[in-house]
Design goal:
translation regulation, protein biosynthesis, RNA Cap, Translation Initiation Factor Eif4e, globular, about 270 residues, TIF_eIF_4E, about 25% helix, alpha+beta
């Protein structure tokens, strides 16, 4: 699939990851990481204590890197881009052949293992290039962002509608991703034997839809706990102001679900 509408990620662009910030703060506040001051020559005849043996700089470097290495996520995630496409249906009259809708998927990354890997993708994604009806997804490895994926057949989504003004939609999307990939949302519903399978960011004209996919769409207790976990986890100015701004819906309740589960998507790798 051609990705002319969604440029490939530029991994050469520096990431503003939280781990980089942590490393900078650590070096500025931890004297053991700072450069040692030059020792002054002692000219007095008074005996002095011999210098203590010091670890090599390479050993110190390894220790710092180990201490600052981002903790891995509980699950490995994949980043996807999807956009609608049409597949012509063969009929006797090719000039009037109808088109059946499907989605073209492009795998952007399959190695989202920790927060640094997430921010390498998030900070370098050309969000302004994501058009209406297109989506960017983060899904657990082995699950595709499609209704027809076996893991999604009985599931559903919390959908949050966020205005795009003042960058609120992108901020809310970032916070939801951190809550989900970091495991906080999964912890909220673990006792209900439900699972967070993925998230989707789908821009519209004036707002963006942020969808959080769960495996069990009929588990009311899990749905309620997830709702509370998301609202509590968002920054105060990003929380929904009314129940009109978000809803939960099972996939099978969507018009076209029965047709969609019989269709196949086209998939490419970036």
């Amino acid at each position: 699939m051609s990705m002319s509408s969604f440029p490939a990620l530029d991994e050469t662009v520096p990431s503003r990851s939280r781990s980089a910030t942590l490393e900078s703060l650590s070096r500025s506040r931890n004297p053991s990481v700072s450069r040692a001051a030059p020792q002054q020559q002692v000219t007095s005849d008074v005996p002095t204590r011999p210098p203590m043996p010091r670890r090599s700089s390479s050993a110190m470097h390894r220790e710092v890197l180990t201490r600052l290495r981002p903790m891995p996520f509980q699950y490995i995630w994949c980043a996807w881009h999807s956009k609608p496409s049409v597949s012509p249906v063969s009929t006797p009259n090719e000039d009037t052949a109808p088109a059946s809708p499907t989605y073209a998927l492009t795998l952007l990354s399959q190695e989202v293992k920790d927060v640094a890997a997430f921010y390498r993708i998030f900070n370098n994604t050309p969000w302004s290039s994501v058009k209406a009806k297109e989506s960017v997804h983060f899904f657990r490895t082995g699950v595709k962002p499609l209704w027809e994926d076996p893991q999604n057949l009985d599931g559903g989504c919390w959908v949050f509608k966020v205005r795009k003004e003042d960058g609120k939609a992108q901020r809310a999307w970032e916070e939801c991703c951190v809550l989900a990939l970091g495991g906080q949302l999964q912890s909220a519903i673990a006792d209900e034997h439900d699972h967070i399978l993925g998230l989707s960011y789908s821009p519209r004209l004036y707002q963006a839809h942020i969808s959080i996919w769960t495996q069990s769409g009929a588990n009311k207790q899990s749905i309620a706990k997830l709702e509370q976990a998301v609202i509590d986890g968002l920054s105060e100015d990003l929380r929904p102001k009314s129940s009109m701004e978000y809803y939960y819906k099972m996939h099978r309740e969507h018009e076209g679900f029965e047709e969609a589960v019989g269709l196949k998507s086209t998939e490419t790798q970036a």
